Amino acid sequence: MQIYLPIAEVSVNAFLLLGLGGLVGVLSGMFGVGGGFLMTPLLFFIGIPPAVAVATEANQIVASSFSGVLAHFRRKTVDVRMGLVLLAGGLVGSYLGVRLFAILRSVGQVELLVTLCYVVFLGVVGGLMFIESLQAIRRTRDPAARPKPRKHHSWVHGLPLKMRFRQSQLYISAIPPFVIGMAVGVLAAIMGVGGGFIMVPAMIYILGMPTKVVVGTSLFQIIFVTAFTTLMHATQNQTVDAVLAVLLLLGGVIGAQIGTRIGVRMKAEQLRILLAILVLVVCGKLAFDLVATPSELFSIGQGGH
């Protein structure tokens, strides 16, 4: 069933969009990521203009993340205080990112910027996560091996403005989570992602948070940052397609509940290596499209209004 998307100005199969939303919802529930790192490139691939895909996907992430975080609240695996610090940084970063997005869109460089950001960030994060996950799996299979404790003193513990995060069992400076949140806010605005693929590893390896608390806390922060990003894009760039957003939302809400149930039955190492493989596959496809000769040697430019 074909449906016309008024802002994107293209016709797309409605069931395809529902399926894509459901897939991203499953990822959200399993890994604590908004899923935008996968959905936004998929929207590119089916012909949605990059400016519309980025802005609308941020809207879809709100619903799938909200659905997932409800399940984590029931399990008491959300550190609200940590989430609020991450959120403060995220709102600042999101505002800056939307302003930068508007400037680049006015000079016609949005598509190149978004694609390059995806290739760089997904390649680096996916590679590091894959290597670490393999090492973690080897340690669990070797009975003589002892996993290295995460709670060790590092530069993070020497910074000022310390706060106690009881749910995460941490007493650290508020500066690193604020900066992490700000970086994720910029990514949410420019790349149409929740930023979980950056935030989850950062929360585990930089802040030293327990894996069981990371997923729910990441989703909690993502909800508010992506909602703010969507509002900014809608009011300043007019690039949010409501019809596209609703179809993605319906699939995302259902998929998030399924993903949460799957996630609790899998080991943390297995979840991380699956996420790493997904990140690397999407990165490879985007990198290939950057250098491959397009089948149609023309493009439809996106106007600044």
From TrEMBL:
For membrane topology, the record states: Multi-pass membrane protein
TM region positions: 12-38, 44-71, 83-104, 110-131, 170-198, 204-228, 240-259, 271-292
Q: Which UniProt keywords apply?
A: Cell membrane, Membrane, Transmembrane, Transmembrane helix
Give an example GO cellular component term for this record: plasma membrane
Does the record carry Transmembrane helix as a key word?
yes
Any Pfam family from its record, for instance, is TauE
Q: What is its main location?
A: membrane
Where is the protein found, in the record's own terms?
Cell membrane; Membrane
Give the protein family: Belongs to the 4-toluene sulfonate uptake permease (TSUP) (TC 2.A.102) family.
Q: What is this protein called?
A: Probable membrane transporter protein
